[in-house]
Amino acid sequence: MIVSSIKTFGKYCTFMTQVFRVPEKWKVFLKSVVFEINKLGVDSIPLVLIISLFIGAVICIQMTINIVSPLIPSYSTGLATREILLLEFSSTMMCLILAGKVGSNIASEIGTMRVTEQIDAMEIMGINSACFIVLPKIIGFVLFVPVLCIFSMFFGLIGGWLIAEFTTMLTVENYIFGIQSFFNEWYVWYGIIKTVVFAYIITSVAAFYGYYVKGGSLEVGKASTNAVVASSILILLADVILTKLLLQ
Q1: What is the mean pLDDT of residues 107-126?
Q2: Where would you tag: which of 19, 29, 141, 166 has the fewest CB atoms within 10 A of its CB?
Q3: Residues 6+ apart with CB under 8 A from 204
Q4: Long-range pairs for 33-37 at CB < 8 Å and ≥24 separation?
Q5: In terms of DSSP H, where are the helices of 116-171?
């Protein structure tokens, strides 16, 4: 298993050297990047907003229920909701969700191109298929994912505000005071930095599994599943490393 993992990692590194080449036609490349931003990033906005809104509401409810000690200030619910969203949910948890949507999409798309011999046709024509297909996806998603992260943070806080506004669990004044108290701007940048790294992991790993598919439609499905699993594991590993490096 260790030998197999080392071989896979070496194959991945070789694949990345093919991907990160200077594009032959910049006009075509930039057009592809804009298309991928729209397909992978903009189309993910509704999913991010809906999930963040409900998760923010749930976090607020759970914090209100569990913070019952008279020694704890009433504004702690808003503060705890903000910290959870900024530090972990809007970066790590959101990217784990996007790994299922974006990662499976990329792996299945490139895998289908492989089994239908479209990639082979590009190679015959002398086109660097890895760069032509994969690089716009990586650049496009990495550029747009900070926007998704910020949207997630904002709508998560809106979800908590809705609980304060339409229930009697806590007051709006205490919630707003809590999300404003002891604010650390670095936590926002910390979340954005993590999402950029995670976006690269999602796109590159999914493209790798899709690019080297062998067989038919069944293998494309397996590659898509393996891409999501591998991306999720690597995101969690990177989360531990980045947290140690950026918050120590």
Answers
A1: 90
A2: 166
A3: 12, 16, 19, 134, 138
A4: 33/136, 33/139, 33/140, 33/143, 34/140, 35/136, 35/140, 36/136, 36/137, 36/139, 36/140, 36/141, 37/140, 37/141, 37/143, 37/144
A5: 118-124, 129-166
Full-model pTM: 0.92
* pLDDT tens digits for range 126-163: 888 999 999 999 999 999 999 999 999 999 999 999 99
**For 240, phi and psi rounded to 5 degrees?**
-65, -45
Q: How far apart are CA 86 and CA 192, in angstroms?
A: 9
> In Å, what is the CA distance from 188 to each residue of 54, 89, 116, 175, 218?
20, 12, 43, 19, 41
CB count within 10 Å of CB 117 equals 11
Cα–Cα distance for residue pair 248/234, rounded to 1 Å = 21
Percent of the chain with pLDDT over 90: 73
CA torsion through residues 160, 165, 169, 172, sign: positive
C-alpha pair distances (Å), 49 with each of 3, 46, 80, 92, 191: 42, 5, 20, 15, 16
Q: What angle do CA 31, 234, 227 make, to 5 degrees?
A: 60
Q: What pLDDT digit, counting tens, does each position of 155-210 carry?
A: 999 999 999 999 888 889 999 999 998 999 999 999 999 999 999 999 999 999 99
CB proximity list for 94: less than 8 A, separation 6 or greater: 48, 51, 52, 148, 149, 152, 195
- The pLDDT score that the predictor gives to residue 68 is 76
Encode pLDDT of 34-48 as tens digits.
Answer: 999 999 999 999 999
